[in-house]
Design brief:
Layout: H1 22-32, E1 37-41, H2 48-59, E2 67-71, H3 81-88, H4 99-107, E3 112-117, H5 123-136, E4 140-146, E5 155-159, H6 174-177, H7 181-194, H8 204-213, H9 218-225, H10 233-248, H11 257-270, H12 274-282, H13 292-298, H14 309-318, E6 323-327, E7 330-334, H15 337-349, H16 353-374, H17 379-402, H18 406-415, H19 417-422, H20 425-438, H21 446-458, H22 462-479, H23 482-498, H24 502-516, H25 522-539, H26 542-559, H27 562-579, H28 582-599, H29 602-618, H30 622-639, H31 648-662, H32 664-675, H33 679-686, H34 708-718, H35 723-730, H36 734-748, H37 753-762
Parallel strand pairs: 1-4, 1-5, 2-3, 3-4
Antiparallel strand pairs: 6-7
Helix pairs in contact: 1-2, 4-5, 7-9, 8-10, 9-11, 12-14, 12-15, 16-17, 16-18, 17-18, 18-20, 18-21, 20-21, 21-22, 21-23, 22-23, 23-24, 23-25, 24-25, 25-26, 25-27, 26-27, 27-28, 27-29, 28-29, 29-30, 29-31, 30-31, 30-32, 30-33, 31-32, 34-36, 34-37, 35-36
């Protein structure tokens, strides 16, 4: 029987072997047993991120909520730190709730490990975020990586030193030398780069000298090791020694570690051919991941032809100067933050930074304009592209702000309407408000006010929507933009109705209808139908809802407009539900839920789960209804959504009837079971693709006799861990684990750990 699906986290897989760090791993485990926050500190390239990933991978199973990683290196705007953590936790900024408030609410009762990677350039924002999370969520532990401590109360700092250096003792046995951390890393990376590399008596001195010269810095060692494709260890050592000698005046004095890394990067850079150097420096314009098409459009010109981009990029990847990643089915790339810093300096020295940044801004504006034009018909493809590129788009928006280029910024933010609607409503509001406040002549931009008003309506904020839409109407009227005028009037009618101003709502909708006549514009027509349907729901005019929504559904289906079709089906389903036609309601809502899953629209899924729960209540399926209500509440909390005004009365009545049918205690139990369902499991349940799950562990019944902590222990017993290892994972004593194991055996009538393991496997807990 299907059971709740627990997400295990978002810690990335380790692409290469992990070398050494036994002391740091042990120290981190020890500190996390008592501390809520540990900060791994050290210079760039010392391996803080890899260490954090290894710690989280090792300890993540000890947390019921798993281990999650938010990467801040690609983020340039401190105000978006909370958004980055939300994205890492697979939450959505789709409603009116501010990201930090939503995080506090969501994490309040969670037990999980959160990794914040690369905090140094957002130190104040990261410190505030961590403080808020730790204060609000007692079950959350945090690992931060930064070049300096966060200086937060309760912070335990764990300095990350370079790798252990080999001894200068020339006669050290090879077998012993191979166990040295720095040497081990060089050997492994050299073998991976060249296909075959062995430490021998003849190259021993060169390898030892290299590792010592590079101060045991992992990134520097990797950059040197990759050169064994073309050079021997002696040649690499000698060339690097010459470079270091220039910096130290020939003395044997040690360079500061940051200078060691900078010099190694510079040496690698100087070995590149001119076209590779040019491309590497221009790549720094991308704040996040980028694709080959991005590189060809932004970084290529006469000196670096687009036809050579793939070969040059492949060469930089082979030299460990660019990192290749996979995102869904697309190959993408990124720069290590230390490499990006160096490339940015080089780009500035070349006097190209302004030109390349402007080319980047124009490229993303052009792509997003296509998104705005085609998004209605190709929304799934465009959303996937935007999710991949969003950090680069944010960087362009920030550049527009910093360079007083608000017009380009407004155009870009306006073109992202489909992304803001389905992924990041509050973020869209913030960008638009900030840009409009800086624009000298915003009155010319009718569509930006429409988008701002639309987002406010989605946030259930008519007080913000109405003035924005009024400005949009004025601007559209002055510019003679009839499509913008009609759509702004229609959206303004919805906002007026939400505010209780029925007279203004009717007047605005009538005017919108007059303007729309004869336009033959798909977007305008669909907006008219949507306004009529939503206003009908708010007014209780179900006939108007059915008529408008059915026509809108037909038209959007023909046009391939998934978002509008989903909204029309939601309206049709609500109208049928309110009128008591449960069969019709179930069909429309189920199709709407399938579309919302395709689009990954969390707010729509929330409303649809609740509406299908009402259908189950009306069909006398109280268990199913209670679980769907629980799933709806879980999704509502994740998205920060508010209950749809047209749906609230039906939901209240259904909840009352289901509670009466089950009794308060049983209702609460089933409701909690629904809250534990993943989004996918909840949708399959609502679509009748799965039976209602049995009530989970700590609630009731023979299948649920274990408390949560006992279930955690049983799961780790099934994984083959000893009591001591389980205690380390769960941060409890070995004696406490023994007590839990005895209790599990007594409750289940077992006499061995093997029986616990089999039970956990067969019950799919």
């Amino acid at each position: 029987m299907p059971r709740p699906t627990h997400r295990q986290g978002s810690i990335p897989a380790e692409a290469t072997s992990f070398v050494g760090r036994r002391h740091e791993l042990a120290e981190a485990r020890k500190k996390l047993a008592a501390a809520r926050l540990i900060s791994l500190t050290g210079p760039g390239g010392v391996g803080k991120t890899r260490l954090a990933i290894r710690i989280a991978t090792s300890l993540g199973r000890g947390f019921p909520g798993g281990a999650w990683m938010a990467e801040l290196a690609d983020l340039q705007d401190p105000a978006l730190a909370s958004n980055a953590v939300m994205a890492a936790l697979d939450l959505r900024d789709q409603a009116a709730t501010e990201p930090l408030a939503l995080l506090r609410s969501y994490l309040r009762d969670k037990e999980l490990l959160l990794v914040l990677d690369n905090c140094e350039h957002l130190l104040e924002a990261a410190a505030q975020l961590v403080s808020e999370v730790i204060r609000a969520a007692p079950g959350v532990r945090v690992i931060a990586t930064s070049r300096e401590p966060l200086s937060v109360a309760g912070e335990h700092v764990l300095p990350v030193p370079p790798l252990e250096l080999p001894s200068l003792h020339a006669a050290e046995p090879l077998a012993q030398l191979r166990q040295n951390e720095a040497v081990m890393l060089f050997i492994e990376r050299a073998a991976a780069a060249s296909g075959r590399f062995e430490l021998t008596a003849s190259n021993q001195a060169a390898v030892v000298g290299l590792c010592r010269r590079l101060d045991g810095l992992p990134l520097a060692i990797e950059l040197a090791a990759v050169r064994t494709r073309a050079l021997g260890p002696e040649q690499i050592r000698d060339r690097l020694s010459d470079r270091f000698g220039l910096l130290t005046g020939g003395s044997r004095a040690a360079l500061p570690r940051h200078q060691t890394l900078r010099t190694t990067i510079e040496w690698s850079y100087d070995l590149l051919i001119p076209a590779e150097r040019t491309l590497l420096t221009r790549l720094c314009v991308f704040a996040g991941r980028f694709t080959l098409e991005d590189v060809e459009s932004v970084c290529c010109s006469g000196d670096v032809p687009a036809a050579r981009a793939l070969d040059l990029l492949s060469s930089l990847i082979d030299k460990s100067l660019v990192i290749k990643e996979d995102a869904a089915s697309a190959a993408c790339y990124r720069q290590h933050e230390t490499m990006r810093e160096y490339a940015r300096l080089r780009l500035h020295e070349a006097g190209e930074d302004d030109a390349v940044e402007l080319r980047c801004a124009d490229y993303y504006l052009s792509r997003c304009m296509h998104f705005a034009a085609e998004g209605r018909h190709r929304l799934l493809q465009w959303l996937a592209w935007t999710e991949l590129e969003i950090d680069n788009i944010r960087a362009v928006l920030r550049r527009c702000m910093d360079h007083e280029d608000s017009r380009r910024g407004i155009d870009l933010a306006t073109c992202l309407i489909w992304y803001w609607i389905t992924r990041a409503t509050a973020e869209g509001v913030r960008w638009l408000d900030e840009l409009l406040a800086r624009e000298a002549m915003p009155a010319e931009r009718s569509w930006v006010y429409f988008v701002r008003g639309f987002l406010a309506v989605l946030q259930n904020d008519p007080a913000a929507a109405r003035p924005a839409l009024e400005r949009g109407v004025t601007a559209a009227r002055a510019a003679g933009q009839l499509d913008a005028l009609s759509q702004s009037l229609a959206m303004a009618s919805i906002a007026a109705n939400m505010a209780g101003d029925r007279a203004s709502s009717r007047r605005l909708l009538d005017e919108a209808r007059v303007v729309a006549n004869g336009l033959n514009d798909l977007g305008t027509t669909l907006m008219m139908y949507q306004a009529r349907a939503l206003n009908g729901l708010l007014d209780g005019d179900l006939g108007a809802v059915r008529s408008a929504a059915s026509q809108g559904a037909r038209l959007s289906r023909e046009a391939g407009d998934l978002y509008s079709l989903g909204m029309m089906l939601l309206n049709q389903g609500f109208a049928a539900l309110i009128s008591g036609d449960l069969r019709e309601a179930g069909q429309r809502l189920a199709e709407g839920l399938r579309i919302a899953r395709q689009l990954d629209d969390r707010v729509a899924q929330c409303h649809l789960l609740g509406a299908l729960g009402c259908c189950a209540a009306g069909s006398r399926e109280p268990r199913l209804a209670a679980q769907l209500f629980g799933a709806m509440e879980n999704l509502r909390a994740e998205a920060g959504a508010t209950i749809n005004a047209g749906m609230a009365p039906a939901l209240a009545r259904a909840t009352t009837s289901v509670t009466a049918a089950l009794g308060p205690s049983k209702f609460a139990t089933e409701f909690k079971a629904g809250q534990r369902l993943s989004r996918d499991a909840a949708a399959r349940l609502a679509l009748r693709e799965a039976a209602p799950p049995a009530v989970a562990a700590s609630d009731h019944g023979s299948a649920g006799v274990l408390r949560q902590r006992e279930t955690d222990v049983a799961r780790l017993v099934a994984d083959g861990l000893s009591n001591k290892e389980i205690g380390g994972r769960l941060f409890i004593s070995e004696r406490t684990v023994e007590s839990h194991v005895r209790s599990i055996m007594n409750k289940l009538g077992f006499s061995s750990r093997a029986q616990i393991a089999r039970w956990m496997t067969t019950s799919d807990r």
